[in-house]
Structure formats: C-alpha cells, structure tokens
Amino acid sequence: QVPLVESGGGLVQAGGSLRLSCAASGRTFSTSAMGWFRQAPGKEREFVAAINWRGDSTYYADSVKGRFTISRDNAKNTGYLQMNSLKPEDTSVYYCASRWGFNRYEASPDGNAYAYWGQGTQVTVSS
C-alpha cells in the first residue's frame, strides 16, 4: 500500500498562494504517477494536475493552468502542488492520489486510474 497524507491547506485571501504536500510511505510511490484532485461541497470531484513518475511530464486542468504547478521529489517520497493567484472558486478539499499496476508510470487526468488516495486537505480562498 501507499498511504498518502496531504498537508499545507488553509485559509488564504484571493490572490494568495499555498503549497500542498503529499507524503507517501512505501517504496512504490517513486515509480508511480501521482495526481491532485479537488472536490467542493455539492460538486463532483475534478482533476487538477498530474505528473508522471519521473516528474518530466505534467498535465493541468484548464482552470488552473498557469497558476498551479505540480512537482515531486522521489528521494523524499513527496509530491507538491504550488498554488498561486488563488481564486475563491479554488475553494475545495484537495486530494492527492497515486497510481498502481502495470501502467502506473504515466500521468492521467482520470481519477479512476488512481488506486491510492489521501484523506484530503481543505483549501479556502476568501474574496
């Protein structure tokens, strides 16, 4: 298993920044793609960003492109989501996820492609 623990959420004013972290245990995280998703109350989960296992291929939702940056440090078994120019509509619970299986190396915007999920961290952006 690859338990995942998110941290770094909080309350920030519009235009501010936050950096989310996703700490993983286990040896397989460094060879698995990971992604960030978010879910606001009453809404479906949506894709935010994903990165392949090497960290050299990334994908972003159009709504966050140019504002958010996904990265990873495999030596630390940790993934990150740098969020800049935050907007009130970014308010959500943010989840990190890790893939598993024979095709775990490549990033995917499909939440169903991810086997392991963290508990989530709340991000609230005030106007």
Give your account of this protein's structure.
The model has no long low-confidence stretch (mean pLDDT 95). It is globular and about 45 Å long. It starts with a strand and ends with a strand. Strand 5 (46-51) and strand 6 form a beta hairpin. Strands 2, 4, 5, 6, 9, 10 and 11 form a seven-stranded mixed β-sheet that branches. It has 127 residues and is mostly beta strands. It is built from no helices and eleven strands. The protein has strands spanning 4-7, 10-13, 18-24, 34-39, 46-51, 58-60, 68-73, 78-83, 92-99, 114-117, 121-126.
Oligomeric nature of the chains: single chain
Class by helix and strand content? Answer: mainly beta
Binned strand content:
over 45%
The major sheet is characterized as: 7 strands, mixed
**CA(first)-CA(last) distance:** 39 Å
- Which stretches are poorly predicted, pLDDT < 50 over at least 5 residues? none
What gross morphology would you assign? globular
Helical residues, percent = under 10%
Query: What is the radius of gyration?
Result: 13 Å
Write the H/E string, N to C. Answer: EEEEEEEEEEE
What's the overall average pLDDT, rounded? 95
How many β strands by DSSP?
11
**Tally the helices: what do you get?**
0
Keywords summarizing the entry:
0% helix, 127 residues, 7-stranded mixed beta sheet, 4-stranded antiparallel beta sheet, 11 strands, globular, mainly beta
Secondary structure layout:
Elements: E1 4-7, E2 10-13, E3 18-24, E4 34-39, E5 46-51, E6 58-60, E7 68-73, E8 78-83, E9 92-99, E10 114-117, E11 121-126
Parallel strand pairs: 2-11
Antiparallel strand pairs: 1-3, 3-8, 4-5, 4-9, 5-6, 7-8, 9-10, 9-11
